[in-house]
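User: Before I run my own analysis I want an independent prediction to cross-check against. Here's the chain; please return only the structure tokens and, at the end, one sentence I can use as a sanity check.
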Amino acid sequence: MEPAGYLLVGIGGFIGATLRYIVAGMTSKKADIPTGTLAVNIIGTTILSYLTYSHSLQHIYLLNIGILGSFTTFSTFAYESFALLEQQSNWSFLTNIMLNCVCCMLGAGFGQLMANLI
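Assistant: Structure tokens:
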């Protein structure tokens, strides 16, 4: 990667992490499900899928790796899921995992569909 690429990833990471904090904070929690993390993962997956399938690679460092890489958050999803398990909220634990997996796969499919239509 060229030196400018590292700078673009860093700038994008700052933007994406800030957006994640804002969006997750604006999303109200439903029951025990951490809907903020769910929302950013669905949004980020859908946009990343759209950009990938539309072959929009000119901004890969800033958008795909930087912004969307730090906007979506598998580590937080894993931590929050494990915390639900520790709290013995077994139903919420399973629901959170299923919602993240299913909704993000649907988002990826929707992103691909939109890229093919446009």
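Sanity check: DSSP finds five helices and no strands in the chain.
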